[in-house]
Amino acid sequence: GSTLQAAAAESGRYYGTAIAANKLSDSTYTTIANREFNMITAENEMKMDATEPSQNQFSYSSGDRIVSWARSNGKRVRGHALAWHSQQPGWMQNMSGTALRNAMLNHVTQVATHYKGQIYAWDVVNEAYADGSSGARRDSNLQRTGNDWIEAAFRAARAADPAAKLCYNDYNTDNWSHAKTQGVYTMVRDFKARGVPIDCVGFQAHFNSGNPVPSNYDVTLRNFAALGVDVQITELDIEGSGSSQAQQYAGVHQACLSVARCTGVTVWGVRDTDSWRASGTPLLFDGSGNKKAAYTSTLNALNAG
Ligand code: G3I
């Protein structure tokens, strides 16, 4: 294939990017996005603060613009994210107990119902595990409503949109030997054993020199897939430049391609200037929209798979 989406499709995989609604009027941006990607994630527009700015008053216009752009261009959509300790609307941030649990479940139900039938996979719960060596849940207002909050969110999402795949999504879960990876693995194994509805695990894959692409990435993806879930690279970016960055991009794609149930890769933005890492150059296109060495190594890796 001569584009990322065409090359990924040769092995039955998708290739995605994060899209920001306020950039859909930038034709350099939309030209690249339309040509290279066939799976779209809203970078911010479907988050809790964006979709429920006041309690029980839902705001879907920006998310809808992204879904409409994606669907009119024949692309699928990953939903991001229904429940998260971060990016909560102000009214939710200081809630606790039953009121918060019910507000969270109502949010999951309402948003998943609004987008019912239009979402390939939802990040139902985002970033619920702690960094460091504990392998435990992260403390948050949602966690303090009870350890079962995650499974409750998954059950509510399944009831609202039975056709969407339901994913758990997190970062720093790429290295098999890290405690955080093991914590998430144990949760997914438990969910599968008890019939909690979970279909996929998303690996955000935000890499930099302090958090490099692990050499055992394929092991991590294969072990999760063996639990009976799809695995997906959901927010890929790698700090750096030139051949070093290109090599690391190739490695991530080789790891995904070596695992049958690694169903697709999403990069977290189109051009370097679109990245949340404002001062970095972590993506596949430079600020002018030119293909970088990392683009070529990624395309070659996809074509070799
Ligand atoms: O749109 C407002 C603008 O009106 C305002 O003037 C400006 C001032 O701060 O803020 C703008 O909103 C910012 C928004 O990005 C759009 O640029 C928010 O402050 C900023 O917090 C927000 O950052 C996003 C971040 O998630 C929030 O958590 C990034 O764009 C987005 O790339 C990033 O994505 C996350 C994933 O959702 C989860 N995994 C990690 C990943 C990277 O942090």
From TrEMBL:
What EC number(s) would the UniProt record show? 3.2.1.8
BP GO terms, sorted? xylan catabolic process
GH10 domain segment(s): 1-301
Q: Which domain of life is it from?
A: Bacteria
- What is the enzyme's main class? hydrolase
Active-site residues, record numbering mapped to chain: 235
| Reaction(s) the record says it catalyses | Endohydrolysis of (1->4)-beta-D-xylosidic linkages in xylans
Which keywords appear in this protein's UniProt record, sorted alphabetically?
A: Carbohydrate metabolism, Glycosidase, Hydrolase, Polysaccharide degradation, Signal, Xylan degradation
The reply on keyword Hydrolase is yes
Q: Example GO molecular function term?
A: polysaccharide binding
**Record family assignment:** Belongs to the glycosyl hydrolase 10 (cellulase F) family.
Mind telling me what this protein is named?
Beta-xylanase
